[in-house]
Amino acid sequence: MRLARFFRFDSKALAMLLALAIGPVQADSMAPSALSAIEDVDISATDRVTWLGFRVFDITVFTQGGARYDSVKQAALELRYARRFSKKSLTTATMEELDRLEGTQPDHPEIARKLQDCFADVGPGDRFLAVGASKDQVTLYRNDAKTCRLNHPNIRARFLDIWLSLDSRFPAVSRRLRGL
Question: Is 16 helix (H, G, I), strand (E, B) or coil?
Fold first, then answer.
C-alpha cells in the first residue's frame, strides 16, 4: 500500500514533464500539417525515461534536417503517455517545472493562464506535440488535433527546455536528446 501511494505521488510529480509515454514515435505518425511549420523537418533524437523500472515517457525531438536541438532554432517535441493525467495536473506540473528551472518569474501567472486552454486529460497512448516554429510561439497538438497556440516572449525555448535543458529533471536523457 505504501509503495502504491509513493508511486502515485511520484507519478503526479512526473506529470510535470507532461508525460508517461508508451513507445517511440515515427515521423509519419504525426499529422503532416502539424510539423510542416518547420522547414525540412526530421527526427533529431528519441529517448525513453523510466522511473523505478516503469516506462515514464518516450520523447521525440524534431528539428530542421534532423540537426541537433538548438533552443534558438525551430524545433518540435512529442511525448507519448502511458498513464492517465488530468489537464490540471499537466498544467500545474508544467508551471512547477518552469519555476524550478527559471525561478519564480513575474510572467509565470500569465503563462499558466494561457496553458489552461492548451492541455487536456490524457490516457495511455495519447500524444502531445509541441511545435516551436518561432521563438515567441508554441503550438500544441493532442493526438494530431490542435489544442492551442501559445504566444509569449521566448516561449519556444522556455517550454521545450522543460525536457531539453541540461538542468531538466532527467539531465542524462536531455544530453542524449541534444546529441551531447
Answer: helix
pTM for the model: 0.80
pLDDT tens for residues 128-169? 999 999 999 999 999 999 999 999 999 999 999 999 999 999
Burial class (CB in 10 A: 0-12, 13-18, 19+), 40: exposed
Between helix 155-164 and helix 87-102 the angle, nearest 10°, is 90
Cell (9 digits) for 171: 539531465
Name 142's bridge partners.
128, 145
- C-beta of residue 82 within 8 angstroms of C-beta of residue 20: yes
Q: Which amino acid would we find at residue 96?
A: E
Q: How many beta carbons lie within 10 A of that of residue 25, not counting itself?
A: 20
Region 2-177: CATH code = 3.50.70.10
Whole-angstrom distance, CA of residue 148 vs CA of residue 22: 24
How many other CB atoms sit within 10 Å of the CB of residue 81?
Answer: 24
Q: In sequence order, which residues have a C-beta less than 8 Å from that of residue 124 and are 6 or more positions away?
A: 20, 22, 81, 82, 83, 84
